[in-house]
Structures are given as C-alpha cells and as structure tokens.
Amino acid sequence: MFDGKKTAPYVETDPVAPLSVYERTELAGEQAVINSRGMFVIMRTSLIISPYGRNFVRTMLRLAQKR
Predict the structure, then answer these.
(1) Within a 10 A sphere around the Cβ of 29, how many other Cβ atoms?
(2) Nearest Cα residue to 29 out of 15, 11, 44, 14
(3) Which residues are marked as active site?
(4) Are 3 and 29 in contact (CB under 8 A)?
(5) pLDDT tens digit sequence for 35-52
(6) By three-state DSSP, how is residue 1 classified?
(7) How far apart are CA 21 and CA 28, in angstroms?
C-alpha cells in the first residue's frame, strides 16, 4: 500500500498511498480491523508466494528448520 517512492525501508508509521483498487480495499480492511477496538496484528508482507526464488513461505519454512 506504499507508493514505492521512498528511498529507505518503510516503517509502520509511514503514510500509505494505495495505487490500485486492490490496495484501497486492502487498506479499508485494515482500517476496519483497527476501528474494531479488538486486539489485532496487521502484517504487511511482500513476496508471499512464488514458484521462483525467495518468497515469504519459503523463508518462514527455512527459518523454522534452523530455529
């Protein structure tokens, strides 16, 4: 949901700038969770799944084996 213009790594407090309908609906979902006043964790990840190279799932599996 970041626009990709920042030259340093993003942090949780950086403003969001959704560029697509998908990103706008994803942000609306996050805001609904935040407004629910319940306990929650919002994780923004990249490279969720891919048959090629590194991705989130493979990284988590590798770390689980090592640690």
Answers:
(1) 11
(2) 44
(3) 22
(4) no
(5) 998 999 887 776 676 777
(6) coil
(7) 10
